[in-house]
Every structure is written in C-alpha cells, then in structure tokens.
Amino acid sequence: MSEACTSRELMIYTISRLLKGVRHVAVGQSSPMPAAGAMLLRALNQRDGLEHVQVSILGSVKHNSFTGGAEELFDCAAQGRLDAFFLGGGQIDGRGNVNLVGTGDYPNNPVRWPGSFGSAYLYFLVPRVILFREEHSLRSLVERVDFVSAPGVTDETVYRRGGPHALLTNAALFSFDREAGRFRLESTHPGYGWRDIRGTTGFSYDNEQCEVTTPLPDEATLSLIRGRIREELRECYPQFAGNMPGPG
Amino acid sequence: MSEACTSRELMIYTISRLLKGVRHVAVGQSSPMPAAGAMLLRALNQRDGLEHVQVSILGSVKHNSFTGGAEELFDCAAQGRLDAFFLGGGQIDGRGNVNLVGTGDYPNNPVRWPGSFGSAYLYFLVPRVILFREEHSLRSLVERVDFVSAPGVTDETVYRRGGPHALLTNAALFSFDREAGRFRLESTHPGYGWRDIRGTTGFSYDNEQCEVTTPLPDEATLSLIRGRIREELRECYPQFAGNMPGPG
Amino acid sequence: MTDFVTPREMAEMIPSGCKLGLAPDDYAAAPGLVRMLIDRGIRDLHVVCAPIGGMQVDMLIGAGAVATLETSAVSLGEAGGAPCFSRAVRDGSIRLRDATCPAVFAGLTAAEKGVPFMPIRGIIGSDVLEKRDDWKVTSNPFDDAEKIVVVSAIQPDIALFHAPEADRFGNVRLGRRRETMLLAHASKKAFVTVERISEVSLLDDEKMAAGVLPAIYVSAVAQLEKGGWPTGLYAEYPRDGQEIEKYARAARSPEGFQAYVRGLGSAA
Amino acid sequence: MTDFVTPREMAEMIPSGCKLGLAPDDYAAAPGLVRMLIDRGIRDLHVVCAPIGGMQVDMLIGAGAVATLETSAVSLGEAGGAPCFSRAVRDGSIRLRDATCPAVFAGLTAAEKGVPFMPIRGIIGSDVLEKRDDWKVTSNPFDDAEKIVVVSAIQPDIALFHAPEADRFGNVRLGRRRETMLLAHASKKAFVTVERISEVSLLDDEKMAAGVLPAIYVSAVAQLEKGGWPTGLYAEYPRDGQEIEKYARAARSPEGFQAYVRGLGSAA
C-alpha cells in the first residue's frame, strides 16, 4: 500500500471532478493545485479514451495554447472558447464575492494582497469558475468581503455568462446557486464534519447538515498524481512539486 | 545623353520632393509610382548621408516594416508613427474630397471602382497625404465628388491631424490650404501651361495663372530611377517596372 | 479538436447562407477551395472581406453565390477592376456594405475581444458612414466635445483561408499576416487549406510560435497544394499575373466568366 | 532610428516623473536595468504594469522611486507577497490605481489603436471600478439595455523590457509574448535590454518575423546579459527562485531592503 492520500491530493482530485466535461480549462499564475487538477483530468481522459482536454497554464512554456500574449486568454474567454477557470481570494463571501486586494479600508489596507488580477473580468465570461481557497476559516470565508475584486452575482443589465460554480477548501466542497446567489454544502472532506464547517464558515449557506464525505481518488488515480502530474508540475511549480509525495 | 525624362519619371521625382523630411512613408496596394517616389527619396537620402527614410509598401515582403498584419499600418498611423501616405481617387474635388467608390448614385453606381480602402481613416491621421491621380481631366478633377470616400476637411468636433498636402497629376502640381479648404496651383509640368490646367480642372483653385514649371530630375537622379528604383519595384510591380526605361 | 478533411469535404462543410470571412488575395486567399464552393453551388453567402476582396470574391459573385458583400474594396490589383463585382453593383444583385479597412479590423477586433462595438477615429464626413446602419457617431465618454464613430462587432460564422502549413495537431502557421489571425480569432470557426502538413508541432519552436494560429481556433484543415493559386501566398509564391489577366478578360462577360469557371472545373 | 547604448546610458535616458510601462516578471521584466535606475536615484515614476508587477516593481517601490502605481497585482509568485509594495500601501506612500488585467490590456489597446477609450465586458459590481476615475459605465450604443464599462487609453512615455535578442537594425525578437508587443505599440518610446545582438536582420526569416517588434517602435537597445535575472526570461531561462526568496526575506524590513540593494549594487 502506498502512503495515504494527502489533503492536497484530495483537493487535486476534487478539482479534476469539478472540471469533468470541460474542453478547455485555464489556470492562472501561482495556482499549483488547480494546475494539477486540470492536468489530472487531461491525463484521466487520455487514459480512458475520453474527449481531449486543453489545459492552458499561464506562465508555462509547455502547457500553453496561446501565441498572442497574456491578453489572448482574456480574448479567448470573451469568445466563449474557455470553459473553466479558478479564482482564489483572501476573502470569499456568501454571495460569491471575491476579495484579492486586502482587508480593511482601501487604499491603505492594513493587510494588502497582490491584487485583483483578471478576476473582475473572467468571473463574468468563463462559464465554470471554481473558487479555490485552501484555508477554511472565519477569516477567509466571511459574511461580506472588505473589497469586491469580482462580484458573485450581477443584475440583468450587465452581460454575464460566467460565474461561481463551486468553492473548494481544505475542509469542504460547496456548489453555488446563481439564481439564489448562495452556496450549498456538497460534502465535507475526511476528518471534517458538518459542524466543523458551520463553525469555520463566516457566511450562511444551504444544506448545512450535509453528511456526504468528499470521495477519495482510487489507487490508480493517486499514482497518476504522484507520477505524471508531479512531473508535469515541475516546470512551473518546482517547489510545490518537490513537496508532493512521489517516487524519487 | 540618356533618353529624356518621361512623364512618369517626372511624377516619381516630384513625389520624392513632396516627401522631403518624412521619416516614415507608407504606400498602399496598386500604387507603383508612389512606391517609386518613396523609394527614390530613401535612395537619395542614403546617397547624400541624410536621415534614414522608412518605406512601408503594403503587399511587399521586402519593403515591409510591420509584423502585425495589415491592421498595424492603421494602428501605426493612429500612433503618429506614419508621416506620409498616398491616396488616389476616381474623382477628387476642390474641397479635397476623394471618391474611390464610383460615379452616379450609390449603391448601384453605373461605374464602380474598387472601394474606399483605408482612405476614410488615413486621411484623418496621416499628416501628409499626397493625392495622386495620373489623369488630369474634367472627369477626374470635379466640382463635387459623387461619393465621399474620405472628406478633405472636417469641423473641430472631430479629431483630425492629417489631411491633403498636395495633388499631383500628369500635368500639374497643386498644394492644399487646409484652413481655406482649397487647392493652389504650384507648377505645371513641361508641355502644359496654366491655361491647359484651367481647362481640364473641374474645380476652382488659387494661383490660376501660375507660370512655374515643375522641375525635372537631374541626370544622376534619373539614373537612380532607371537603375535601383526600377529593380526595387520589380517585386511588387513587375509589369510596371518592365515598362519603365532602363538598362536591359 | 481540429478535423482533418479533404478539400471537397471542407467545401461541403461550409453551408449556403453563412457569414463567410475571407482573407485578401496574395496573402491568405483560398481560391482553390472557393472554386469547389462554386462547383457545389453554394448560395446566399454574406461575405466579409478582411479587409478587401480580389479574384476569389469576384468569382463567388460571378457564380451568384453572394447575397451580401461587406468589404473595403474589390480589385484584381494590376489586372484592374473586378468585372463580376462591377456588374453585380450595376444590376443590384448583391447587397453592398461598403467599409474602410480599419473599420473592418475594428469590427473584427470587437468580436475578438468579445465586446459589442469598437470606437474608431476618422470616417466622419465620409459617405461610407452614411450608408452603414451598424456604425454610429457617438461622443467620447471622456470628452463630450469630441465626436467619434463606433462600429459594431463583426463575427463571421466561418473564416476560410489558405496557409503554408498546419501541423497534425491543428496548429496553423500564418507568419506575420496577423490580419488572418485576427479573422480567425473573431470567427466562430476557422477552415484552413494548407500547402503542407507537419508531423512536428509548430508550437515547439519558440522562434516560430508567434506566427502560429493555435488549434483551439481551427475547426478543420485540408491539404490543398497551390490552394492559393492563381493569387499568391504570402512569402511562399507570387500571384500568377498572366492567369489573373486571363480571368479579367474572360469575366468581362457573364458567358466568358462561365466558360472560365467551367474550364477550371474540368482541369481541377 | 534605434540608438544602441550601454545599460548605464539607457538608465540615464529614462527621466524621473515619466510614465513607465513594465512587463511582468519571468516574461520580459528588466530587473537588471531597473537596478541601475535605482542606483541613479530615479524618482516620481508613474509605473504601469502590463498587466502585473513583481520583484522589479517591488524594488522600485522600496527605493522610493514610485509615485503612482497602476497594476492588476504585485506579487513575488512562489516567494509570496511583495513586501515593499505592501508596506507602501499601508503607509500611503504610493498612489494606487488598482486594475484588472484585461482592462490594462484594453487601455493599452486603445493607445495602440489611437482611440481615446475601449469598451470592456465584466467589471461592473467590482470595487476596482469604484476607485477608478478614468473608467466609466456607459450604455452599449447598439443596445441601450446593456451597461458596459469603458476604460481610457493608457499611453506610457516609455516601455522598458528585456528580450532575448535584437538585431543591429533595432528589430527585437519577443516571441509569442505579444503583451510586450502591445506595450511597445502603446508607448511613445520603447527601451529594450537584450541578451544578444544579431548581425542578421530578424525580419529576414519569415518564420521568425511574426514574433519580432519592428525597429520603428524601438528607441534604444542596450545589451545586458542576464538582464532578466533574478526573474526569468520567457523560453530562455527560468527565475532564480532562491535569489527571489532571499530578496523576499531581506525586504521584509526597509533596512533589509536597503542592504539587499546595496549588495547588488556593489556586485554589479
């Protein structure tokens, strides 16, 4: 028996499940787990003879479908040629708002994060945006974000075909209902119960007393993560890949 | 003594004079004489150790400064990086309006020309637009064009830093006064007098009784046209170059 | 994923009535495939010239395949005016949407960027503007004193063009002719005929990659050698001026045009 | 015409107070030249990140050279947050113009196309929009029911970036990193440091030409080997992660930052 599935491996696997059916997924800068999840779906589909998955990793030379510079990703999204993307967020609130800028008052935020990147745009145009935030805490999942980098919901005067699809943390998986503008707890990861989630989530959501456990990858999938995916990650995320379990 | 300067050679030489001082001149499709004039200025400046002249010939692989496709010419003009351009015109009128579309009523013009190309844009953005029309006749130089592909003058609510600089035909050279919105006869070519010009020009213009004769190229310039320029033209205009006087 | 098909199959995949984006003669025009469209009797096309048309467009018009023509010009270059185009203008058999080159690029750029319109300088005072109901004069939102034109997005259903090579993954090398790249980005699908098909990915060579249209935009590729003939293919082969002169003479009459097209059909 | 100068000369040619456009780390960032700007005490810059900043921007901020910062993000990537940036935000020593990447590209595209503004989808409902007086919400002129953002043109005085090679005519190979091409088109001048200078024109090879920035945009070129270090140069060398970690640790305090910069200065 190999080493047990780590929390990160579970998240990588869960991301691959959330991406099922997409033809083209892009991954932003500094996003090793989303990159790994997208690579895993590509590898699984290839193994199983399913549809080809195009993975575009910003910052990668090898896993790059673009030849027009960074703006091509945004154009591609606007053209409807991009099915899924990931957003993180220092804070995420119950309406799906994302804050990548900082806590407290703008502009002199006491805690400042890098910035909004392409969130204020891609959140509107990419059908399946997966919110990914490892830290599941009252600090990260808040009632109302201090700064809206990108809003979760929009009225009908604004063109919008994309938005939040799911929220994945190190403890649980939520889906998002765009009509209601609310999250729904879908499963808790092994080691966490619904009460843990309720106690560490700063916003209200549906299906609070969820008893479903997030499924683990099978042995074959786990070896794929530890072998091929770990190797593919090395180009852009050498430190992250080095810290993953795997041969050698 | 070599063969006497032809009418086309005089026009090529005159174009090179009209371009004096430009750093970047572009030449559109199907414009062998403007191309030759621009090439001549480049060659003369090079010979005389003067400023380098960038010549961009649309449709040329060799004489091409662009790597972004045909739209780059227009962007470049908008950025102020293009000093001179040429426009022809089935009809040109006394206000500097240009018609590249056809005679009679649009859309079912009894005589239809190719179309407006980039005229409606470049005429606004390129400081020195040289109108070039070989045929000097009441048919080509009219009181009022049947269709305005590009207007000669514009009111102050519209951004405009470019416009007509001169009008060159096989018989005469006019300058254009942008304030007055009128042409001024500058010289007549050898073999034409001011009365010929008045009789064959359909619009009114200043300095009607002009006695200046358009200067001819000197012997060295003429050999440059018949040698290097003729060779450079061959790539894009093999038929035109073949019909020019020259060695071999 | 890119489909690899025969030229005849590709001609069948382009439906009558579609909005078809075409590249200029001597750059990336695909007269080889256009002849097959004529052979199969395609009709009611809305042709978008990006930004001008030449022999392939004149042939489509002569064959009665064009309902609407959106272009900044149609010309045979050194061989003169486009005879079928001029005839169709006179007899009113095509709906004309005259444009100016940068406005076509602005419309395609709007589609590329997924916005409904683009602003563009110039044009005001031109009769071209008067005839277009999909262009408007507005104010610069940052300076009310400035009037400026906005053009609406142009999104062809299919972009059709010819290129030097594709690889077996569907990437297509266009070189520096980026107006064709723009056309492909702006269109829902791109169909491409090529001289050659490379076994090696065209994206592997960093020096070449900037001129390569990625496979994500390319719906179908067909190998068709000399698919740009008798017009030229940029940086590969020049136009066949004699053949285009021959066409220009023949197409002066509808009968001459028919004879020319039939002649090509049997030779192909 | 392009001037060929030494890196120190280039640093002197970039004046305090100018609007300086910079490329992202690991693509075409020019930290080598930026260190010389710091050495010479440049001040009051309006830095435009196209579209994000990294170590070179953090260093400029730490050195007190930045008055205004227009960016979609500043980050050291795997090495974490940008310490001088975070400090400057807290103490209010820089004027912030937070953006979102495609809005920066839209602003640069407006400058490239010589229009005063560009429309862009999305953004409405974001606080980023609330904080920008140079962005507006308008109606789509072709559909009054749709609200849409317009951003004003961004035209840097100088674009500064590092590239693999230039030729002796001033053409610069960028490869597929066309955001740097856009930045150069949009800026009044482009100053470029390069690893190598080619005697042969980079435009001669049709396969390469599409990735080459023509000399008409390039005001000055300076050869500076490893000018991208310790960040990477796209498709040439990766970032030096250890060095950037070292910087990230040092720059946690203003004193540590000063010591780091002095250390580099004497080594250079």
From TrEMBL, chains C, D:
Residues in the signal sequence: none
Membrane-spanning ranges: none
GO MF terms held by the record: CoA-transferase activity
Sorted UniProt keywords: Transferase
InterPro entries per record: CoA_trans_fam_I, NagB/RpiA_transferase-like
Protein name: Glutaconate CoA-transferase subunit A
Organism from which the protein derives: Bradyrhizobium shewense
